[in-house]
Structure to design on (228 residues):
């Protein structure tokens, strides 16, 4: 597609529930990144994929968070047993590759609210 | 390790005045540096980037930034602020050994008519 698409744009869920957030990157971009942005903060790195594999998942806060990219394009961020502290905007970005000085193209984000 | 520090979480300027948003970075190797802008309820948009070519980098919407290695700085400037420049601006760094970009905490720019 023309840009990075994230769905849903908003998600409200109850504490303890499971959620999935989807990211559809720019066609042909091999690198895909997930960030989380809390109110008043800069984006915080969660995980990135080069192709189908997670090249760096050091930013995932705990084992309730998991992400996949099975075919090297669309990615899903999965959060189990959601907590109120998980409320944030989840941003996805893609770039042509992870090497070099390529900037990211970001999606508009998914605003997750855990009540 | 890599990091950026943005001085001033809020900056106010008058319409037509100079915009200066400060960013200092820390990197053990020559970095790539970026400025992103975020308008309300929108995703981040790349303004400009430094990738070891010219130290003065020009971006979109009349913004530019200068890489100063001796000062480890990459400040963002615009000669004359427009009302449409009101947004949040993020400085970011990517070092050679790291494949991810690290963002600063952002600076909200307010433009006063």
């Amino acid at each position: 597609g023309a840009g990075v698409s994230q769905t849903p744009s908003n998600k409200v869920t109850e504490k303890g529930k499971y959620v999935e957030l989807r990211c559809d990157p720019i066609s042909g971009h091999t690198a895909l990144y997930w960030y989380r942005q809390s109110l008043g903060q800069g984006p915080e790195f969660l995980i990135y994929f080069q192709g189908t594999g997670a090249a760096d998942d050091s930013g995932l806060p705990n084992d309730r968070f998991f992400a996949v990219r099975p075919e090297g394009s669309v990615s899903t961020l999965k959060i189990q047993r959601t907590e109120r502290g998980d409320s944030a905007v989840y941003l996805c970005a893609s770039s042509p590759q992870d090497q070099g000085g390529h900037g990211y193209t970001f999606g508009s984000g998914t605003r997750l609210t855990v009540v | 390790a890599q990091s950026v520090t943005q001085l001033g979480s809020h900056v106010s300027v008058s319409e037509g005045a100079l915009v200066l948003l400060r960013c200092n970075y820390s990197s053990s190797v020559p970095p790539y540096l970026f400025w992103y802008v975020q308008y309300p309820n929108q995703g981040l948009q790349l303004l400009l980037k430094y990738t070891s070519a010219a130290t003065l980098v020009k971006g979109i919407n009349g913004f530019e930034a200068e890489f100063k290695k001796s000062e480890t700085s990459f400040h963002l400037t615009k000669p004359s602020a427009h009302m449409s420049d009101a947004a949040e601006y993020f400085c970011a760094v990517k070092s050679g050994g790291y494949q991810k970009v690290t963002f600063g905490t952002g600076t909200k720019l307010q433009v006063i008519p």
Notes: The first strand of chain A starts at residue 5 and ends at 7.
